[in-house]
Amino acid sequence: MKKYFLLFLFSILLLSCSKGGKVTINGKVTNGSPLERLEIIDASGIATLPLANFGVDAKGNFSETIEIPRDGVYVITYGGNTGFLYLKGGDQVNLDFEAMLFPQGMKITGDAKGNTEYLMESQQFINQYMSKLDQSVISKKEEDFLKELEKYKGDITKKMDEIAKVKKPDSDVEKFNKRELDVTLLMISSQYESMHGPATNDPKYKAGAKLLEFQKGLENESYVEDMPNYRNYVISKLSAGFQKFFEGQKNAAPTSNVQMFSKFLDTQKDVSDKTKEYLLAAVAAQYDLREPANPKLQEVFKFLDTKIKNSAIKSELKNLEEAIYGIEQGTDVSGLSLVKQDGSKITLADLKGKPTALVFYASWNPYITESTMPVLKEMVKFYGSKMNFAFINLDDTQDQFVKTSKAMFTGIQGNNYYATGGMKSEIAKKFAVYGFKMPSFIIIDKDGKISSKTYLNIADPALVDGLNKASGLQAPTAVPQAPDLMTAPSATEQHSANDGHGH
Fold it and tell me: Tens of pLDDT along 110-156?
């Protein structure tokens, strides 16, 4: 029976190299909703946060210039679906696609065409090739299994070369593609190493010299910096030892995943400090930091800050911390500038004297009119005598801000402001606001300093506690339940007529 036991290895190529710079992406979406957004995500690092979030005009056209940290593969999302592009600093890229079919049928013209199409066709071939593999390969003797791996490499490399002759990618992209293939083969060999014993009823099986030699020939410590699959490979090689170590720690005090893994890595003298730091960051990002409500979040971030010395990893973890938790409490944000509905400018300093609840939103946010607004109205009524409410709009244009704020907030006590530039504004960057974080809620004190974490759900009891503390009032304990705001619905489910888009 055929099993697609290797498919999880062959998703999006996550490659990167140096350079980077400005990239302009233009294009048109056919038959799409003006409420849907495109996002470009750097998926090769630790944080995997969006670099850009932008919309389309009434005719489906879009144009955005972004700054990429390095040349390489970037994820592009639209309507809940995902594709990828190979981008280089200085690229001028044009994309045209049918909304319902994205990313299939995406037409690429301009600088990214050859590189991206080469990678896409290579990936399609690899997926098809690997889907035909039989589960019995893991039961073969090591010598025969290694012959299979060499055959895989030969067949796939030959096809990559054929595709390259037609698509004419840059030479460095060809090298990266073959480097990714090496990591794929390492992942397969690691699976064989862990599954061969159970598959052959041989509990004493251990990898032989030839398999270890094969792995050693493909391993390269530098890959750990920018290849998530390679980090996963190294973690998989360590998993058996970690499991044994973990079982011996069951009577120890409860701790986070990354702290336990760190204790284990301290016993692995043949793993370099550089690799250990990347692995710790990867484990934390995949497990401990995935849930914003994790009560140990701050503890985990403090531990990582102490344990990790690499400045590049520290920077990514700091970005991730701000994205999840918010910027450091006590930070003075009173000087940040905003625009009122009449076009006049103010700063957050104008709100000093009372604590202020900042509400970040945009007209394209899911569920906001149906679920967030009813709860928000009640909050404003209850706390409004003791604190300010500032509704900060992050739409793409000031005209859209005026329409949306009047449609949604007329009759609600509070201040309506626009952050010029929307998602690209200074205030969005300062507060680490991303599309997936809106609507979001932050409390600043009467002196204009941050006094809370960022709350991602208006029904979060911790938000009510924060408002109680800031205002000196005590709200009723029962809070109306809002849906999970981190779950993105389709465009037709997201919006009502009362969002300022006139539909």
Answer: 999 999 999 999 999 999 999 888 878 999 999 999 999 999 999 99
Residue 370 · residue 496 · CB < 8 Å? yes
Q: Where are the domains of the chain?
A: 21-112, 248-324, 337-494
Does domain 21-112 correspond to CATH entry 3.40.50.2000?
no
State the DSSP code for 284: I
- The pTM score is 0.85
- What is d(CA 493, CA 447) in angstroms, rounded to the nearest whole number? 40
The predicted structure's pLDDT at residue 499: 54
pLDDT of amino acid 496? 43
* Strand arrangement of the beta sheet that strand 38-41 belongs to: 50-54, 38-41, 72-78, 81-87
What SS3 state is found at 59? coil
Fold of 337-494: Glutaredoxin (3.40.30)
Q: Which amino acid appears at position 163 of this protein?
A: I
Q: Which residues 6+ apart lie within 8 Å of 12 measured at CB? A: 43, 73, 75, 82, 84, 123
Average pLDDT over residues 457-485: 81
Instruction: Give residue 79's region: left, alpha or beta (phi > 0; psi -120 to 50).
Output: left
Written as one letter, the residue type at 172 is: D
Contact 326, 442 (CB under 8 A): yes
Give the chain's length: 503
Q: What confidence tens digit (pLDDT) does each residue in 147-159 have? A: 999 999 999 999 9
- 306 burial (CB, 10 Å; 0-12 / 13-18 / 19+) is exposed
| DSSP collapsed to 3 states, 178-214 | HHHHHHHHHHHHHHHHHHHHHHCCCCCCCCCHHHHHH
Residues 431 and 327: beta-carbon distance below 8 Å: yes
State residue 439's pLDDT score: 95
What local confidence, expressed as pLDDT, does residue 43 receive? 83
